[in-house]
Design brief:
It contains no helices and 31 strands. It is mainly beta and 397 residues long. The protein has three domains: 144 residues, Sandwich (Jelly Rolls), CATH 2.60.120.260; 148 residues, Jelly Rolls (Sandwich); 77 residues, Immunoglobulin-like (Sandwich), CATH 2.60.40. The protein has a 16-stranded mixed β-sheet that branches. A hairpin with a 2-residue loop joins strand 27 and strand 28. It is flat. The protein starts with a strand and ends with a strand.
Length: 397
């Protein structure tokens, strides 16, 4: 997963102060912590400078069989939107995990013994009126501390197929990657009201998850859905499907019990340019899905080989006179991925900008007021390590 820093986005959001957090449940506390950071000297050969910072951090305490957490309701999350949450944590003791993220999409983590920075990407549900940031512990015997919790709006950009999607040997395949960087923010996910816990969907009655699948311009002729239920207690799922453009949902089947489940989609749905799959919770209990995959036979794709691509765009410095929209990923003639979009000068005077990716610079563009211009930024080749890359349009004076 390539992480990019954009210079045309919004200004960076500062972490909310501890005063913005309210105790939610269980044993919570705040603590004064002293941080020492070594910073390089300004002159060549100058020794590093040790900087002391005093901060108030959030803490939770557990007995090993309870739950405690802080919440922040001042930061409002938008529905069907992507965010990154960054934070530092450390813990003493033993047990199950730290709770991080929100009350609707969370990530369970084992707290390290020393201060460690963590970050993950997630997507919000269709209704966020009751969604809030939540940090705490689940069945931890000891203490966990949190510092510099930061919520950052990000943009997840996909190619015609996103991460986890591919076309090969005349077939379209999508495989969920809930434990990977995009987690619940993969391209086919359309909307959800179910909870997402670390690496699985958690359904109760009437909670749903909807996926939309499209294999480029190749029509689907038939399709098979595979699910893995990792936990179930008095719960089940109704699986429905719909050909895009139609109003009625067709019931595909019922799923209950742990283990793998395979469902063949009805012939009446095909051929289909795009297919929607809907999973709805039933029963008085809960059912959890840790794996979702759809495979479809395509028409006319026997020679096509396409691997999906996605990237995450983080905001950078703000430009009031520049609007960038319609961002997408496309391969060029040499197979290199490019970030393609439209740039519009919203000011009154011509604007000169220079596209750049890292240290690479392109020719300066002159944007006339109100006239959209196409932009193409060639991305660096993938590497084994996830290293942020700065790109964007730098204004020329």
């Amino acid at each position: 997963m390539l992480t990019l820093l954009l210079v045309w986005g919004t200004a960076q959001i500062e972490p909310p102060p501890p005063a913005d957090w309210q105790p939610g449940e269980g044993q919570t506390f705040t603590r004064h912590e002293v941080f020492l950071e070594a910073r390089s000297g300004n002159l060549p050969g100058q020794s590093p400078v040790l900087i002391r910072t005093d901060r108030i951090v959030l803490g939770v305490k557990g007995t090993g069989n309870d739950m405690s957490w802080w919440r922040n309701t001042r930061l409002k999350l938008q529905p069907n939107s992507a965010y990154a949450v960054e934070f530092w944590l450390k813990g003493t003791g033993s047990g199950v995990c730290a709770l991080t993220g929100t009350n609707s999409v969370n990530r369970d983590l084992p707290p390290p013994p020393e201060w460690t920075r963590k970050q993950f990407i997630f997507r919000t549900p269709a209704d966020t009126r009751d969604t809030f940031l939540r940090f705490g512990q689940w069945h931890w015997n000891g203490e966990i501390l949190f510092d510099r919790i930061q919520l950052i709006p990000v943009q997840v950009v996909h190619a015609a197929l996103g991460e986890g999607e591919q076309i090969c040997n005349g077939r379209y395949r999508f495989t969920s990657r809930y434990e990977h960087a995009l987690s619940n923010a993969q391209a086919p996910l359309q909307r959800f009201t179910a909870l997402f816990n670390t690496n699985r969907w958690v359904f109760t009655r009437n909670q749903e998850v909807v996926y939309r699948h499209q294999a480029g311009n190749y029509p689907m002729q038939e399709a098979t859905l595979r699910l893995n239920v990792v936990y179930e207690q008095n719960g089940s799922l109704t699986i429905m499907a719909q050909r895009e453009g139609e109003s009625d949902w067709r019931v595909v089947g019922q799923v209950s019990g742990r283990g793998e489940h395979q469902l063949q989609l009805p012939r009446e749905l095909f051929p289909a340019r795009a297919l929607l799959i809907r999973m709805v919770g039933q029963g008085e209990g809960t059912i959890q899905v840790g794996y979702y995959a759809l495979e479809a036979i395509l028409q006319g794709a026997e020679r096509a080989t396409v691997t999906g691509k996605s990237l995450v765009l983080f905001p950078g410095a703000q430009s009031r006179s520049l609007r960038v929209s319609e961002l997408r990923l496309e391969p060029d003639a040499r197979g290199r991925w490019q970030l393609v979009g439209s740039a519009t000068n919203t000011g009154q005077q011509p604007l000169k900008v220079q596209p750049f990716v890292g240290e690479a610079r392109d020719a300066v563009l002159t944007l006339e007021p109100g006239k959209p211009a196409s932009i193409r930024l060639t991305l660096p080749p993938p590497s084994l390590e996830e290293t942020p890359v700065e790109l964007g349009l730098r204004q020329e004076r």
